[in-house]
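In response to reviewer comment 3 from the previous cycle, which asked for concrete evidence that the modeling workflow produces usable outputs, we include below a single protein chain processed end to end. The sequence was submitted unchanged, and the resulting C-alpha coordinates are shown without manual editing.
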Amino acid sequence: MSLRVRLVALFAVLVAFVASAAFAVTAALARVEENHTLVMDRLQPAAVDSRALLVSLIDQETGQRGYVLTGDLTFLDPYREGRRDFALQLAEMRRKFRGDSEMQRALDAVQRSATRWHRVGAEPEIEARSSGDAALARQLVRAGLGKRAFDDVRDRVSALQAIIDHRTERAQERDHRELRTLRIVVVGSRATVLVLLVASALLTRHWVLLPVQRLRTSMREVAAGRLEHEVAVEGPPEVAAIGRDAEAMRRRIVSELEQARSATEALTQHSPVVAGLRRELSSTPRPMASGLDVAGMVLSAEGVLAGDWWEAVQRPDGSTALIVADVSGHGAEAGLVALRFKQRITALLDSEIDVDSAFRIAATRPDEDVERFLSCLLVVIDPGSRQVSWVNAGHPPALLVSSDPQEPVVELAPTGPLISAVTSGWTVGTAPMGERDLLLVCTDGVLEARNTAGEEFGEAGVVGVLRGLKRWAPEEAVAECAEAVRRFAVDVRRDDVTCVAVALSGS
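The workflow returned the following C-alpha coordinates.
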Protein backbone atom coordinates (compact mmCIF):
# COMPACT_ATOMS: atom_id res chain seq x y z
CA MET A 1 0.00 0.00 0.00
CA SER A 2 1.40 3.36 -0.99
CA LEU A 3 2.28 6.00 1.58
CA ARG A 4 -0.28 8.34 0.01
CA VAL A 5 -3.08 5.81 0.53
CA ARG A 6 -1.95 5.11 4.10
CA LEU A 7 -1.85 8.77 5.04
CA VAL A 8 -5.18 9.48 3.34
CA ALA A 9 -6.76 6.53 5.18
CA LEU A 10 -5.30 7.68 8.50
CA PHE A 11 -6.48 11.22 7.88
CA ALA A 12 -9.93 9.93 6.90
CA VAL A 13 -10.19 7.95 10.15
CA LEU A 14 -9.22 11.02 12.18
CA VAL A 15 -11.69 13.23 10.31
CA ALA A 16 -14.48 10.65 10.58
CA PHE A 17 -13.99 10.27 14.31
CA VAL A 18 -13.76 14.00 14.94
CA ALA A 19 -16.89 14.54 12.85
CA SER A 20 -18.74 11.75 14.71
CA ALA A 21 -17.67 13.10 18.08
CA ALA A 22 -18.69 16.62 17.07
CA PHE A 23 -22.07 15.32 15.86
CA ALA A 24 -22.64 13.38 19.11
CA VAL A 25 -21.68 16.37 21.25
CA THR A 26 -23.86 18.71 19.18
CA ALA A 27 -26.83 16.33 19.39
CA ALA A 28 -26.44 15.92 23.15
CA LEU A 29 -26.16 19.68 23.62
CA ALA A 30 -29.26 20.19 21.47
CA ARG A 31 -31.25 17.73 23.59
CA VAL A 32 -30.05 19.37 26.80
CA GLU A 33 -31.04 22.78 25.42
CA GLU A 34 -34.42 21.42 24.31
CA ASN A 35 -35.16 19.99 27.76
CA HIS A 36 -34.00 23.19 29.39
CA THR A 37 -36.28 25.24 27.13
CA LEU A 38 -39.21 22.90 27.83
CA VAL A 39 -38.79 23.18 31.59
CA MET A 40 -38.02 26.90 31.75
CA ASP A 41 -40.34 28.22 29.05
CA ARG A 42 -43.38 25.90 29.31
CA LEU A 43 -43.56 23.58 32.30
CA GLN A 44 -42.48 25.89 35.08
CA PRO A 45 -44.75 28.75 33.88
CA ALA A 46 -47.56 26.16 33.48
CA ALA A 47 -47.06 25.03 37.09
CA VAL A 48 -47.34 28.65 38.23
CA ASP A 49 -50.49 29.11 36.10
CA SER A 50 -52.15 25.97 37.49
CA ARG A 51 -51.55 27.14 41.03
CA ALA A 52 -52.92 30.55 40.06
CA LEU A 53 -56.08 28.75 38.82
CA LEU A 54 -56.50 27.18 42.25
CA VAL A 55 -55.91 30.54 43.94
CA SER A 56 -58.58 32.22 41.81
CA LEU A 57 -61.03 29.39 42.62
CA ILE A 58 -60.35 29.77 46.34
CA ASP A 59 -60.85 33.54 46.03
CA GLN A 60 -64.19 32.85 44.35
CA GLU A 61 -65.31 30.40 47.06
CA THR A 62 -64.15 32.70 49.88
CA GLY A 63 -66.04 35.66 48.46
CA GLN A 64 -69.15 33.54 47.73
CA ARG A 65 -69.27 32.04 51.23
CA GLY A 66 -68.69 35.43 52.88
CA TYR A 67 -71.58 36.95 50.99
CA VAL A 68 -73.93 34.03 51.74
CA LEU A 69 -73.12 34.23 55.46
CA THR A 70 -73.18 38.03 55.86
CA GLY A 71 -75.06 39.42 52.89
CA ASP A 72 -72.29 42.04 52.54
CA LEU A 73 -71.91 42.85 48.84
CA THR A 74 -68.20 43.65 49.27
CA PHE A 75 -67.58 39.90 49.57
CA LEU A 76 -68.67 39.48 45.97
CA ASP A 77 -65.69 41.52 44.71
CA PRO A 78 -63.17 38.64 45.24
CA TYR A 79 -65.68 36.28 43.67
CA ARG A 80 -66.02 38.35 40.50
CA GLU A 81 -62.26 39.04 40.26
CA GLY A 82 -61.56 35.35 40.79
CA ARG A 83 -63.92 34.37 37.96
CA ARG A 84 -62.26 36.87 35.63
CA ASP A 85 -58.71 35.76 36.55
CA PHE A 86 -59.72 32.11 36.23
CA ALA A 87 -61.00 32.66 32.71
CA LEU A 88 -57.87 34.58 31.63
CA GLN A 89 -55.45 32.02 33.12
CA LEU A 90 -57.35 29.14 31.55
CA ALA A 91 -57.26 30.82 28.13
CA GLU A 92 -53.52 31.51 28.47
CA MET A 93 -52.77 27.87 29.31
CA ARG A 94 -54.85 26.71 26.34
CA ARG A 95 -52.76 28.95 24.09
CA LYS A 96 -49.43 27.68 25.47
CA PHE A 97 -50.43 24.04 25.08
CA ARG A 98 -52.19 24.33 21.74
CA GLY A 99 -51.92 20.95 20.01
CA ASP A 100 -51.20 19.08 23.28
CA SER A 101 -54.21 16.76 23.55
CA GLU A 102 -53.49 15.56 27.09
CA MET A 103 -53.23 19.09 28.49
CA GLN A 104 -56.24 20.26 26.48
CA ARG A 105 -58.36 17.42 27.97
CA ALA A 106 -57.17 18.30 31.48
CA LEU A 107 -58.01 21.97 30.91
CA ASP A 108 -61.45 21.02 29.51
CA ALA A 109 -62.14 18.98 32.64
CA VAL A 110 -61.16 21.92 34.86
CA GLN A 111 -63.41 24.28 32.90
CA ARG A 112 -66.39 21.85 32.96
CA SER A 113 -66.10 21.26 36.71
CA ALA A 114 -65.77 25.02 37.37
CA THR A 115 -68.80 25.71 35.22
CA ARG A 116 -70.79 23.03 37.09
CA TRP A 117 -69.79 24.50 40.46
CA HIS A 118 -70.95 27.91 39.36
CA ARG A 119 -74.23 26.44 38.08
CA VAL A 120 -75.19 24.16 40.99
CA GLY A 121 -73.38 25.78 43.90
CA ALA A 122 -72.13 29.34 43.80
CA GLU A 123 -74.75 31.05 41.64
CA PRO A 124 -77.88 29.48 43.34
CA GLU A 125 -76.55 30.33 46.82
CA ILE A 126 -75.65 33.92 45.78
CA GLU A 127 -79.08 34.32 44.08
CA ALA A 128 -80.95 33.07 47.19
CA ARG A 129 -79.03 35.47 49.43
CA SER A 130 -79.55 38.34 46.97
CA SER A 131 -83.36 37.76 47.03
CA GLY A 132 -83.34 38.21 50.85
CA ASP A 133 -84.09 34.54 51.59
CA ALA A 134 -81.19 33.86 53.96
CA ALA A 135 -82.84 30.65 55.18
CA LEU A 136 -82.92 29.24 51.62
CA ALA A 137 -79.32 30.22 51.13
CA ARG A 138 -78.26 28.42 54.34
CA GLN A 139 -80.35 25.39 53.32
CA LEU A 140 -78.53 25.20 49.97
CA VAL A 141 -75.20 25.43 51.73
CA ARG A 142 -76.14 22.66 54.21
CA ALA A 143 -77.25 20.46 51.29
CA GLY A 144 -73.55 20.25 50.26
CA LEU A 145 -74.10 20.19 46.50
CA GLY A 146 -71.96 23.30 46.00
CA LYS A 147 -69.22 21.90 48.27
CA ARG A 148 -69.05 18.65 46.35
CA ALA A 149 -68.93 20.55 43.05
CA PHE A 150 -66.12 22.79 44.35
CA ASP A 151 -64.17 19.79 45.62
CA ASP A 152 -64.46 18.33 42.12
CA VAL A 153 -62.97 21.55 40.67
CA ARG A 154 -60.08 21.34 43.11
CA ASP A 155 -59.50 17.70 42.15
CA ARG A 156 -59.45 18.61 38.45
CA VAL A 157 -56.93 21.41 39.08
CA SER A 158 -54.82 19.00 41.17
CA ALA A 159 -54.92 16.49 38.29
CA LEU A 160 -53.74 19.24 35.93
CA GLN A 161 -50.94 20.12 38.32
CA ALA A 162 -49.95 16.44 38.56
CA ILE A 163 -49.61 16.21 34.78
CA ILE A 164 -47.40 19.29 34.75
CA ASP A 165 -45.29 18.03 37.69
CA HIS A 166 -44.87 14.63 36.04
CA ARG A 167 -43.73 16.21 32.78
CA THR A 168 -41.33 18.48 34.63
CA GLU A 169 -39.85 15.51 36.49
CA ARG A 170 -39.41 13.56 33.27
CA ALA A 171 -37.80 16.53 31.51
CA GLN A 172 -35.38 17.00 34.40
CA GLU A 173 -34.50 13.30 34.34
CA ARG A 174 -33.85 13.52 30.62
CA ASP A 175 -31.77 16.62 31.23
CA HIS A 176 -29.63 14.81 33.81
CA ARG A 177 -29.35 11.79 31.52
CA GLU A 178 -28.30 13.89 28.54
CA LEU A 179 -25.77 15.79 30.63
CA ARG A 180 -24.31 12.50 31.79
CA THR A 181 -24.20 11.28 28.18
CA LEU A 182 -22.55 14.52 27.13
CA ARG A 183 -19.86 14.13 29.79
CA ILE A 184 -19.23 10.55 28.69
CA VAL A 185 -19.00 11.59 25.03
CA VAL A 186 -16.59 14.45 25.79
CA VAL A 187 -14.33 12.35 28.03
CA GLY A 188 -14.46 9.42 25.62
CA SER A 189 -13.71 11.68 22.67
CA ARG A 190 -10.70 13.18 24.41
CA ALA A 191 -9.33 9.76 25.29
CA THR A 192 -9.95 8.42 21.80
CA VAL A 193 -8.39 11.47 20.14
CA LEU A 194 -5.33 11.04 22.36
CA VAL A 195 -5.10 7.36 21.41
CA LEU A 196 -5.51 8.21 17.72
CA LEU A 197 -2.85 10.92 17.92
CA VAL A 198 -0.39 8.54 19.59
CA ALA A 199 -1.23 5.86 17.02
CA SER A 200 -0.81 8.39 14.20
CA ALA A 201 2.57 9.46 15.56
CA LEU A 202 3.73 5.84 15.83
CA LEU A 203 2.44 4.97 12.36
CA THR A 204 4.02 8.09 10.85
CA ARG A 205 7.30 7.19 12.51
CA HIS A 206 7.05 3.61 11.23
CA TRP A 207 5.89 4.57 7.73
CA VAL A 208 7.94 7.72 7.10
CA LEU A 209 10.54 8.73 9.68
CA LEU A 210 12.30 5.37 10.16
CA PRO A 211 12.54 4.56 6.41
CA VAL A 212 13.75 8.10 5.66
CA GLN A 213 16.26 7.87 8.51
CA ARG A 214 17.56 4.53 7.16
CA LEU A 215 17.77 6.06 3.68
CA ARG A 216 19.59 9.08 5.07
CA THR A 217 22.06 6.83 6.92
CA SER A 218 22.77 4.82 3.77
CA MET A 219 23.26 7.96 1.69
CA ARG A 220 25.59 9.39 4.33
CA GLU A 221 27.68 6.23 4.10
CA VAL A 222 28.02 6.81 0.36
CA ALA A 223 28.69 10.55 0.82
CA ALA A 224 31.45 9.70 3.30
CA GLY A 225 33.27 7.78 0.55
CA ARG A 226 32.08 4.22 1.17
CA LEU A 227 30.77 3.86 -2.37
CA GLU A 228 30.47 0.09 -2.07
CA HIS A 229 27.68 0.52 0.49
CA GLU A 230 24.39 -0.40 -1.16
CA VAL A 231 21.49 2.02 -0.73
CA ALA A 232 18.56 -0.29 -0.02
CA VAL A 233 15.56 0.84 2.02
CA GLU A 234 12.41 -1.05 2.89
CA GLY A 235 9.25 0.93 3.46
CA PRO A 236 6.36 2.53 1.61
CA PRO A 237 6.63 2.50 -2.20
CA GLU A 238 7.41 6.23 -2.36
CA VAL A 239 10.37 5.96 0.05
CA ALA A 240 11.54 2.72 -1.56
CA ALA A 241 11.46 4.51 -4.96
CA ILE A 242 13.71 7.25 -3.57
CA GLY A 243 16.04 4.52 -2.29
CA ARG A 244 16.12 2.87 -5.72
CA ASP A 245 16.89 6.21 -7.36
CA ALA A 246 19.68 6.85 -4.85
CA GLU A 247 21.08 3.37 -5.48
CA ALA A 248 20.97 3.99 -9.24
CA MET A 249 22.85 7.25 -8.68
CA ARG A 250 25.43 5.44 -6.50
CA ARG A 251 25.99 2.84 -9.19
CA ARG A 252 26.38 5.56 -11.81
CA ILE A 253 28.96 7.32 -9.63
CA VAL A 254 30.84 4.05 -9.07
CA SER A 255 30.80 3.37 -12.81
CA GLU A 256 32.10 6.83 -13.65
CA LEU A 257 34.76 6.59 -10.97
CA GLU A 258 35.88 3.28 -12.41
CA GLN A 259 36.11 4.91 -15.84
CA ALA A 260 38.06 7.84 -14.37
CA ARG A 261 40.37 5.43 -12.55
CA SER A 262 40.94 3.52 -15.75
CA ALA A 263 41.65 6.78 -17.60
CA THR A 264 44.10 7.85 -14.89
CA GLU A 265 45.90 4.49 -15.02
CA ALA A 266 46.05 4.74 -18.80
CA LEU A 267 47.42 8.27 -18.49
CA THR A 268 50.07 7.10 -16.01
CA GLN A 269 51.06 4.21 -18.28
CA HIS A 270 51.07 6.06 -21.61
CA SER A 271 51.67 9.71 -20.64
CA PRO A 272 53.79 9.70 -17.49
CA VAL A 273 54.93 13.31 -17.99
CA VAL A 274 51.35 14.61 -18.02
CA ALA A 275 50.52 12.44 -15.02
CA GLY A 276 53.52 13.81 -13.17
CA LEU A 277 52.56 17.40 -13.99
CA ARG A 278 49.01 16.76 -12.74
CA ARG A 279 50.37 15.30 -9.51
CA GLU A 280 52.83 18.13 -8.91
CA LEU A 281 50.20 20.85 -9.54
CA SER A 282 47.75 19.30 -7.10
CA SER A 283 47.41 21.35 -3.93
CA THR A 284 48.52 20.07 -0.53
CA PRO A 285 46.76 22.10 2.21
CA ARG A 286 48.69 22.40 5.44
CA PRO A 287 47.31 20.84 8.68
CA MET A 288 45.15 22.53 11.27
CA ALA A 289 48.24 23.41 13.32
CA SER A 290 48.64 26.46 11.08
CA GLY A 291 45.58 27.97 12.79
CA LEU A 292 43.62 28.09 9.54
CA ASP A 293 40.94 26.05 7.81
CA VAL A 294 41.68 25.80 4.07
CA ALA A 295 39.61 24.26 1.29
CA GLY A 296 39.85 24.51 -2.48
CA MET A 297 39.04 22.93 -5.82
CA VAL A 298 40.34 23.09 -9.41
CA LEU A 299 38.31 22.06 -12.47
CA SER A 300 40.43 21.93 -15.62
CA ALA A 301 39.02 23.15 -18.91
CA GLU A 302 41.06 20.73 -21.05
CA GLY A 303 41.97 17.15 -20.17
CA VAL A 304 43.41 16.54 -16.72
CA LEU A 305 45.84 19.50 -16.67
CA ALA A 306 44.71 22.97 -15.69
CA GLY A 307 46.53 26.25 -16.15
CA ASP A 308 45.16 27.18 -12.69
CA TRP A 309 46.71 25.95 -9.47
CA TRP A 310 46.69 26.84 -5.81
CA GLU A 311 48.85 25.99 -2.84
CA ALA A 312 49.04 26.76 0.87
CA VAL A 313 52.56 27.06 2.35
CA GLN A 314 53.26 27.37 6.06
CA ARG A 315 56.04 29.89 6.57
CA PRO A 316 58.77 29.69 9.22
CA ASP A 317 57.22 32.57 11.22
CA GLY A 318 53.95 30.63 11.71
CA SER A 319 51.97 32.48 9.05
CA THR A 320 50.47 30.73 6.04
CA ALA A 321 50.95 31.82 2.44
CA LEU A 322 48.13 31.07 0.01
CA ILE A 323 49.05 31.21 -3.69
CA VAL A 324 46.49 31.10 -6.49
CA ALA A 325 47.82 31.40 -10.06
CA ASP A 326 46.25 31.27 -13.50
CA VAL A 327 48.47 30.65 -16.52
CA SER A 328 47.18 31.74 -19.92
CA GLY A 329 46.11 28.79 -22.04
CA HIS A 330 45.37 25.17 -21.16
CA GLY A 331 46.93 21.75 -21.47
CA ALA A 332 50.47 20.47 -21.00
CA GLU A 333 52.33 23.62 -22.08
CA ALA A 334 50.39 25.79 -19.64
CA GLY A 335 50.91 23.13 -16.99
CA LEU A 336 54.72 23.30 -17.43
CA VAL A 337 54.69 27.09 -17.01
CA ALA A 338 52.50 26.74 -13.93
CA LEU A 339 54.78 24.08 -12.44
CA ARG A 340 57.96 26.11 -12.88
CA PHE A 341 56.41 29.18 -11.24
CA LYS A 342 54.96 27.06 -8.44
CA GLN A 343 58.35 25.53 -7.67
CA ARG A 344 60.02 28.95 -7.54
CA ILE A 345 57.41 30.72 -5.40
CA THR A 346 56.87 27.88 -2.91
CA ALA A 347 60.62 27.44 -2.39
CA LEU A 348 61.05 31.17 -1.72
CA LEU A 349 58.06 31.33 0.64
CA ASP A 350 59.43 28.37 2.59
CA SER A 351 62.48 30.52 3.52
CA GLU A 352 62.95 33.52 5.79
CA ILE A 353 62.74 35.98 2.92
CA ASP A 354 59.98 38.60 3.12
CA VAL A 355 56.84 38.39 0.98
CA ASP A 356 57.66 41.34 -1.26
CA SER A 357 61.13 40.00 -2.12
CA ALA A 358 59.92 36.43 -2.56
CA PHE A 359 57.27 37.48 -5.05
CA ARG A 360 59.54 39.82 -6.95
CA ILE A 361 62.27 37.19 -7.33
CA ALA A 362 59.80 34.52 -8.45
CA ALA A 363 58.09 36.86 -10.92
CA THR A 364 61.23 38.40 -12.47
CA ARG A 365 62.62 35.06 -13.67
CA PRO A 366 60.57 34.61 -16.83
CA ASP A 367 60.08 31.31 -18.60
CA GLU A 368 61.50 30.60 -21.98
CA ASP A 369 57.96 30.79 -23.40
CA VAL A 370 57.68 34.59 -23.63
CA GLU A 371 54.18 34.39 -25.06
CA ARG A 372 52.82 33.00 -21.82
CA PHE A 373 51.71 35.26 -18.96
CA LEU A 374 50.02 34.51 -15.69
CA SER A 375 48.01 36.20 -12.98
CA CYS A 376 48.82 35.45 -9.39
CA LEU A 377 47.45 36.31 -5.99
CA LEU A 378 49.70 35.73 -2.97
CA VAL A 379 48.00 36.18 0.41
CA VAL A 380 49.87 35.72 3.70
CA ILE A 381 47.58 35.15 6.70
CA ASP A 382 48.95 35.53 10.23
CA PRO A 383 46.48 33.91 12.69
CA GLY A 384 48.27 35.47 15.64
CA SER A 385 47.93 39.10 14.57
CA ARG A 386 44.85 38.40 12.43
CA GLN A 387 46.35 40.36 9.54
CA VAL A 388 46.55 39.54 5.85
CA SER A 389 49.23 40.81 3.46
CA TRP A 390 48.86 40.32 -0.24
CA VAL A 391 50.42 40.83 -3.62
CA ASN A 392 47.97 40.75 -6.52
CA ALA A 393 49.51 40.48 -9.99
CA GLY A 394 46.54 41.11 -12.29
CA HIS A 395 44.40 38.49 -10.58
CA PRO A 396 40.68 38.99 -9.84
CA PRO A 397 40.37 40.51 -6.36
CA ALA A 398 40.04 38.13 -3.43
CA LEU A 399 37.04 38.79 -1.17
CA LEU A 400 37.21 39.09 2.61
CA VAL A 401 33.62 38.54 3.73
CA SER A 402 32.22 38.67 7.27
CA SER A 403 29.42 36.39 8.44
CA ASP A 404 27.67 39.58 9.56
CA PRO A 405 25.81 40.84 6.48
CA GLN A 406 26.02 44.41 7.82
CA GLU A 407 29.82 44.41 7.48
CA PRO A 408 31.22 45.57 4.09
CA VAL A 409 33.04 43.19 1.74
CA VAL A 410 36.79 43.92 1.56
CA GLU A 411 38.51 43.39 -1.82
CA LEU A 412 42.18 42.39 -2.06
CA ALA A 413 42.60 44.36 -5.28
CA PRO A 414 45.51 44.11 -7.77
CA THR A 415 48.77 45.68 -6.58
CA GLY A 416 50.61 45.29 -9.87
CA PRO A 417 50.40 44.01 -13.46
CA LEU A 418 50.20 40.46 -14.79
CA ILE A 419 53.42 38.43 -14.55
CA SER A 420 55.26 38.26 -17.86
CA ALA A 421 58.74 38.71 -19.29
CA VAL A 422 58.30 42.49 -19.47
CA THR A 423 56.37 43.45 -16.29
CA SER A 424 57.40 44.45 -12.77
CA GLY A 425 56.49 46.79 -9.95
CA TRP A 426 54.30 44.88 -7.50
CA THR A 427 53.48 46.24 -4.04
CA VAL A 428 52.17 44.67 -0.85
CA GLY A 429 48.72 45.48 0.62
CA THR A 430 47.50 44.75 4.16
CA ALA A 431 44.11 44.35 5.84
CA PRO A 432 42.76 43.00 9.14
CA MET A 433 41.01 39.62 9.21
CA GLY A 434 38.23 39.21 11.78
CA GLU A 435 37.35 36.09 13.69
CA ARG A 436 34.21 35.52 11.60
CA ASP A 437 35.77 36.57 8.26
CA LEU A 438 36.13 34.19 5.34
CA LEU A 439 38.68 34.78 2.57
CA LEU A 440 37.57 33.57 -0.86
CA VAL A 441 39.83 33.52 -3.91
CA CYS A 442 38.43 32.69 -7.36
CA THR A 443 39.94 32.67 -10.83
CA ASP A 444 38.25 34.26 -13.84
CA GLY A 445 36.71 30.88 -14.70
CA VAL A 446 34.32 31.53 -11.80
CA LEU A 447 33.76 35.26 -12.15
CA GLU A 448 33.45 35.26 -15.96
CA ALA A 449 31.12 32.26 -16.22
CA ARG A 450 28.14 33.24 -18.38
CA ASN A 451 24.54 32.08 -18.56
CA THR A 452 22.29 31.75 -21.62
CA ALA A 453 21.53 35.51 -21.49
CA GLY A 454 25.24 36.36 -21.63
CA GLU A 455 25.31 37.63 -18.03
CA GLU A 456 28.46 37.05 -15.93
CA PHE A 457 28.37 35.26 -12.59
CA GLY A 458 30.62 37.98 -11.22
CA GLU A 459 31.48 39.13 -7.75
CA ALA A 460 27.79 39.65 -6.91
CA GLY A 461 27.11 35.98 -7.59
CA VAL A 462 29.99 34.92 -5.33
CA VAL A 463 28.86 37.21 -2.49
CA GLY A 464 25.27 35.97 -2.90
CA VAL A 465 26.46 32.37 -2.50
CA LEU A 466 28.41 33.26 0.65
CA ARG A 467 25.47 35.13 2.18
CA GLY A 468 23.31 32.05 1.66
CA LEU A 469 25.65 29.54 3.34
CA LYS A 470 23.98 27.30 5.89
CA ARG A 471 27.33 26.61 7.56
CA TRP A 472 30.05 29.26 7.71
CA ALA A 473 33.05 27.12 6.75
CA PRO A 474 35.63 27.09 3.89
CA GLU A 475 34.66 23.64 2.58
CA GLU A 476 30.98 24.68 2.49
CA ALA A 477 31.85 27.91 0.68
CA VAL A 478 33.94 26.14 -1.97
CA ALA A 479 31.33 23.42 -2.55
CA GLU A 480 28.45 25.91 -2.85
CA CYS A 481 30.41 28.23 -5.18
CA ALA A 482 31.34 25.33 -7.46
CA GLU A 483 27.75 24.11 -7.57
CA ALA A 484 26.40 27.63 -8.19
CA VAL A 485 28.78 28.10 -11.14
CA ARG A 486 27.82 24.72 -12.61
CA ARG A 487 24.14 25.67 -12.46
CA PHE A 488 24.73 29.18 -13.80
CA ALA A 489 27.16 28.67 -16.66
CA VAL A 490 26.23 27.47 -20.13
CA ASP A 491 29.66 25.83 -20.50
CA VAL A 492 31.51 25.52 -17.22
CA ARG A 493 34.47 23.90 -19.03
CA ARG A 494 35.09 27.04 -21.11
CA ASP A 495 37.94 27.98 -18.74
CA ASP A 496 39.74 26.51 -15.74
CA VAL A 497 37.68 27.00 -12.59
CA THR A 498 39.49 27.45 -9.27
CA CYS A 499 38.05 28.41 -5.93
CA VAL A 500 39.87 28.54 -2.56
CA ALA A 501 38.51 29.58 0.84
CA VAL A 502 40.34 30.27 4.12
CA ALA A 503 39.10 31.00 7.64
CA LEU A 504 40.64 31.16 11.09
CA SER A 505 40.40 27.79 12.83
CA GLY A 506 37.45 27.56 15.24
CA SER A 507 35.70 30.64 13.83
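The radius of gyration is 52 Å. We consider this sufficient to address the reviewer's concern, and the full set will be provided in the supplementary archive.
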